[in-house]
Amino acid sequence: MQPVKIAIASVLKPLKDSRSYYKFGLSLRETNKYQINIIGFCSKKERDEKSIKFHPLFYKNRNSISRFAAGFRLLKLLIKIKPKILIVTTYELLPYALLGKFLLKYKVIYDIQENYSLNIKYNNGKYGIEKSFFAGIVKLIESSSRPFIDHFIFAEKCYPNEFHAIKNFTIFENKYQGPITQGSKPFKIEADAIQFLLCGTLAEVYGGIDAILWFENILKINPYARLKILGHAPLEGFRNKLRDLVRDKPYIHACIEDKPLDYTLILEAYKAADLILLPYHQIKSISPKIPSKLYECLALNKAFLFSPNTAWKSLAEKYGAGIEVDFQNPNDHQSVLQFIKSKVFYDKFTAQEALWETEKEKFLDLIDNHITST
Questions:
Q1: Model-level pTM greater than 0.85?
Q2: CATH code for the part of the protein at 4-175+356-372
Q3: What kind of fold does domain 195-354 have according to CATH?
Q4: 240-255 confidence digits (pLDDT tens)
């Protein structure tokens, strides 16, 4: 029996993205029922694996003019692959995905990982009428595509409240899928040479600059501490600002790239870190979400510091996993450092709810149901 072909497509996500590859792709491969075709951004050539094929869609930087041709390249790939199901992870591919649906008769699932119009309003560097224009374009594409999409996946529990018109959805949160390398627990962080880590996507509203300035105040009372920055800063202006801020500072080791990083590099950085920083600004496009890094910390038994947020605090306290910190407050560094050294981390329960395993069977059932109904 020939395996059923499934395609998962994005524009700017790397081929081995933490969600498309590690969560969706590897889960589907375990069934031995599917040929998975992952279509996405190519920062390096990926070799095909058992039941998984990689298809580069986009090579340039995010603002390259050739990005506009990505949709046509997607359509060309889909004609070649002929999938039974296409999972689309970004709004800009929807028109081409739906044209392909008309031609090839596959089913379309739209995986809404971000509220893109809200992100443009609150996260983006654009201003005024330009911001309103692009947010309107996103809403137009998503709303006009809605009747032709077979099912929606929400990456956040808050999305049903943000996308009121969508009724046919299933929620699959960004929980951790990967090797479990938990240390001994419970544990304390008592050494002065604390290793802080800021990683993942770097943007103004994700609090990167706040974290650096906060860390430099920590250095005044603990000169042995160190900060590692490992991430992808998609906006050139902010990327240069970050690089300028950390230049010639031996206590900060920074790798700030213009392209998405291999997820395995992030996981390796976790191993060497004592405390993970989650300094996100509490704005409407961020505060209702649960960051994937928070789930990663819980799964990997890593202590973390997080911006004030009721939902995040609830999870942190449930497992004794983290400490709430106002990264914009220049006056509480002494008390925070004392709290870090006195706290026993992970002294309560094992964070099973942080693992993708709790979502996997439901995801596989969703795909199977859509295959059998074709």
A1: yes
A2: 3.40.50.2000
A3: Rossmann fold (3.40.50)
A4: 999 999 999 999 999 9
